[in-house]
Amino acid sequence: MSDFKLPKHEKLKHKKEIGLLFEKGKWKTYENLRIITLNLDKKPQDGFSFDNQKIGVSVSKKHFKRAHDRNRIKRLLRECYRLNKDLFIEKFGTNSLTMVFWISKEMPAHFKVVEENLLKLCESVK
To answer: Cβ(56)–Cβ(124) under 8 Å?
Structure first.
């Protein structure tokens, strides 16, 4: 059974980790979401080795000028990850870096919309 927490050590924050992710990660898109992942299970990359999944979320300031709109979408994305962490780790591995982006110009109508998009995105990963 999974714990439904998102502790600090699971958040992607370090510039070095984000740089490595953008340099060597794989992109996938489904409807309003885009994801970039880098699996570190196989071998440590440039001295990086982790004991857990790290995730970050981002929303474009270009599409959402108001901070409260961006923060709302980021909260929804983190909540989707938190509730579906088991599926996420199963698809992307236990030692991986991931960043999720909301790419639509429209605000999501409901939490269900965001969650369905994230689940479909996870299903499309091989």
So the answer is: no
